[in-house]
Amino acid sequence: VHIWRQDQASISFPGLRNIVKAGTTWAVRLQPLLPVLRTIALAACVVALARPQWGVETTNIYSEGIAIAMVVDISTSMGAIDLEVDDEKVNRLDVVKGAFREFVEGDDKEVTGREGDLIGMFTFARYADALSPLTLDHKALVKVLEEVEIVGLPEEDGTAIGDALVLAAEELRNASVSSRVMILLTDGSNNAGDTSPVDAARVADAFGVKVYTIGAGSQGQAMMPQISRDGSITYHPTQVYIDEYMLTQVAELTGGRYFRATDREGLEAIYTEIDRLETTTNMGEQYQRYTEGFPWVLAFALLL
């Protein structure tokens, strides 16, 4: 028996075998994932619009120290040229500023600096001003100090010691420390303001503030600056008077001490005394800049 089979007609495509061997492309394979990728890209765009940031948030810094308010006279008499630095006569304010700077930062010798202390800066002439609140950022504090100048108008001149004491005591009152100290530097007597220095000292004492007072400059005659109406300054020999009795009263009422400074080295006794003060734990805040994250998130979304 013979069985006859007829072959089916066919057309040959030489490249078809290569296509089969190549298999499915990545685009085809990933096609089912496209909705998911679009969703991720959309979500990334939403996140980018929210402007994400990363970095270190506000952190609490703990350190051992005390709260100190530096209260500095900037009346025209502080321009008197009668204090010595390296055997040269300089004006009183420059001496005070230099001593304050070393007190805060240290001098690489006997003064170690007040790194762990909260320090604020106050000035006064006819009016008292708070230039810097209590802070652990001593670099910023020194920058404020460098800008301190003697008052430039006659109507701003005067010596409101009592008002300055009250202003600084109010700032110290709110400090979360057990030791509160004020260092008052002046070269004269109270002749302006609403509060007498003795009454202000009682307020400071009630707030738990110990006041160290410093009489800066010479007694008798000194070359004193005088401001004219046009703002120009001339120097004339003038009789000067430091109310040491009042400054002693203020210090003793608060448990502090009065110092007399006729040169920069004369302030070192203050540093030694403050170094002996009780320390306590302070908590300050440090801020760091954030890095913007949205460009990276947006770039990721565009790549998708």
Automatic annotation (TrEMBL):
<keyword id="KW-1003">Cell membrane</keyword>
<dbReference type="Pfam" id="PF00092">
    <property type="entry name" value="VWA"/>
</dbReference>
<dbReference type="InterPro" id="IPR036465">
    <property type="entry name" value="vWFA_dom_sf"/>
</dbReference>
<feature type="domain" description="VWFA">
    <location>
        <begin position="67"/>
        <end position="274"/>
    </location>
</feature>
<keyword id="KW-1133">Transmembrane helix</keyword>
<protein>
    <recommendedName>
        <fullName>VWFA domain-containing protein</fullName>
    </recommendedName>
</protein>
<dbReference type="InterPro" id="IPR002035">
    <property type="entry name" value="VWF_A"/>
</dbReference>
<keyword id="KW-0812">Transmembrane</keyword>
<dbReference type="InterPro" id="IPR050768">
    <property type="entry name" value="UPF0353/GerABKA_families"/>
</dbReference>
<keyword id="KW-0472">Membrane</keyword>
